[in-house]
Amino acid sequence: MSIINTDFLILFGVLLAVVAFLYSSVGHGGASGYLALMALFAFPISVMKPSALLLNLFVSAISFFFYFKKDFFKPRLFYPFAITSVPGAFIGGMIPNNSFYKILLGMVLILAALRLFGFFNSKERETTKINIPLAMGIGFGIGLLSGMLGIGGGVILSPILLLLGWATLKETAAISSLFIFVNSVAGLSGYFMGDKTFPTESFYLVPVAILGGVLGAYYGSGYFSNKVLKYVLATVILLASVKLIV
């Protein structure tokens, strides 16, 4: 496989499975983590964005399946975001990355991660009724950024749902996983509209990501407590923020 030195293939595969496990346990596809790994292992820039979105498709779909089976998915919390995020992600997929937006988003996510770790305010918010117009506006913004950066947007949506009190932790995981899936499809579609070729070698990474994703979603949806999920989610968001800033 030409996208990575074969001497490091096993190490990369192990780390990829771990990233998929962590992200899928909280309903995420893992694109920000995959991008960080690919950068660390010196993947070609042209390979990173489409490969991350491809892995996102599989891992987020697996995560949604497990959380849906446990009846954590609430359609009324999903549709307002998805209606506007899909066209936003499609448009974003045709726009090159912007370092300023990446740094700004990374700083915001650091604050969100610290909040989940218990800083600023340790009291848990009770769930409140969703504001649909606001959710639609947020959805478009997340979709646009997601398409630009090559991520599914769950790492942005999750803290927003929790901080606004619109969903519980496991409801957030279920909503985020499907949100990531549809945005990844839209982002890839926008990417292909730019007459870009797809790195077929990326499909070799899919089975490894699926293995990590299945295990993560299984334990996250059924065995991890809310406290464990909160800390895992905070860790995931913090890792994503570092990837965006560095």
Automatic annotation (TrEMBL):
A Pfam family annotated for this UniProt entry: TauE
Record localization: Cell membrane; Membrane
Membrane topology classification: Multi-pass membrane protein
Membrane-traversing stretches: 51-68, 77-95, 101-122, 134-167, 173-192, 204-222
Alphabetized InterPro entries for the sequence: TM_pro_TauE-like, TSUP/Inactive_protease-like
Keyword field: Cell membrane, Membrane, Transmembrane, Transmembrane helix
One cellular-component annotation, GO: plasma membrane
Keyword Aminoacyl-tRNA synthetase recorded: no
Family affiliation: Belongs to the 4-toluene sulfonate uptake permease (TSUP) (TC 2.A.102) family.
Protein name as annotated: Probable membrane transporter protein
Species of provenance: Flavobacterium psychrotolerans
